[in-house]
Amino acid sequence: xxxxLSQVLKASSWVPSLYFVEGLPxxxxxxxxxxLYQRLGLPNDKIIEYTSWLYxxxxxxxxxxxxxxxxRTKRWWIVAxxxxxxxxxxxxxxxxxxxxxxxxxxxFFWLMAFSSATHDIAADGFYMLGLSDRMQSVFVxxxxxxxxxxxxxxxxxxxxxxxxxxxxxxNPAKAWTWTFYGAAALMLAxxxxxxxxxxxxxxxxxxxxxxxxxxxxxxxxxxxxTIYTFFxxxxxxxxxxxxxxxxxxxxxxxxxxxxxxLDKPNLGGLGLTTMEVGFVQGTVGAIGLIVGGIxxxxxxxxxxxxxxLWPMVCAITIPxxxxxxxxxxxxxxxxxxxxxxxxxxxxxxxxxTAYMLYLIYFSQGNYKTAHYAFCxxxxxxxxxxxxxxxxxxxxxxxxxxxxVNYLSLFIIAVCLTPLTFLVAKxxxxxxEFGKKDDEQCENQE
Length: 445
Prior knowledge:
Elements: H1 3-12, H2 15-39, H3 44-53, H4 56-60, H5 65-70, H6 74-95, H7 101-130, H8 133-169, H9 172-200, H10 205-212, H11 216-231, H12 236-245, H13 248-262, H14 274-303, H15 305-317, H16 321-329, H17 334-363, H18 368-399, H19 406-415, H20 417-426
Helix pairs in contact: 2-3, 2-7, 2-8, 2-9, 2-13, 3-18, 6-7, 6-9, 8-9, 8-14, 12-18, 12-20, 13-18, 13-19, 14-15, 14-17, 15-17, 15-20, 16-17, 16-19, 17-18
């Protein structure tokens, strides 16, 4: 058998499944948890605040990445974290109907989040150690595609399964219990598969050798140098402001929209069923997001980052108006709702491409991998802080007998969009950046 074909077949046995698994816990923590708590009757302000804090492991993961480098192999960390994620999913299922279910399920979501963030570090490291530069280029699009498929699976298929079980069992808590047990079984099966795949189809020699050359002193020195050089980069404050503010309206929408779609019309929502939300947001919306991201990457590779920046800024902000429309008129036409959500998500996917490419641009130079990790820190922080603040503000307003409806929240999100234009105006980028010779990014929300 041709050597290159043999390498492709071996890589095909683990790269697609590994990056599908990488996406699963992230979307369970960030999206499925929101819908779960809404269906279990938790107040909106608490849902927004509690689930926003779950971004924290992705914010701080660069600070414990040296531990993954030094202790054990990447293969060991990958399999161990997949087992922990499976156990956390089972823990959520077991405690959904328990007294104090909020505290218990949140504890397991925190375990899932930390395990997932650690898995990200190990999986990306194993990808670079296990594949040659050529093979990494061959599979970069495949790994991105399977990560995106995890979006559709979690936000679409899983939620639709839970919705069907709600109808069949006439008990949301029981329905979500069985949904999470099923997810746990899938994750544990994938952990067993990867344990076997890494033993049979790929030799972890490079993984072992990499660990043997590392020491705590060397890692600490490199880490300190990484932080120092990152904050010494030209225009670093402008770059950080861009990373934190560019997606500010979306940081509000991503937590509010599932609640808006599910809440009854007399509470200002659209009154969709759980199954309908899985289809509208998790399937149609996710496809719009993916198509927008792919189109954005193609156009930037042809015309360059600078020429596409303002169209992308418009794409990520102007479609937010559809939520104002939906909240004001509260239509019950599912086709119209699908069109609006797909339009907004397409715009977000298209505009988000500029954000991800800027992170790659700012990371260029020495320590580019480590600097990119710090950029993703600010990316996660940009989603965590607005959600936590919004949740606390809503709690304070409710305590003051001031009710904030969905229409008001969407108007606030739209009023924040000029900040996106403002930070985009000040970033400094080479006019030729983004064309075909540049690195391409992955759309990992």
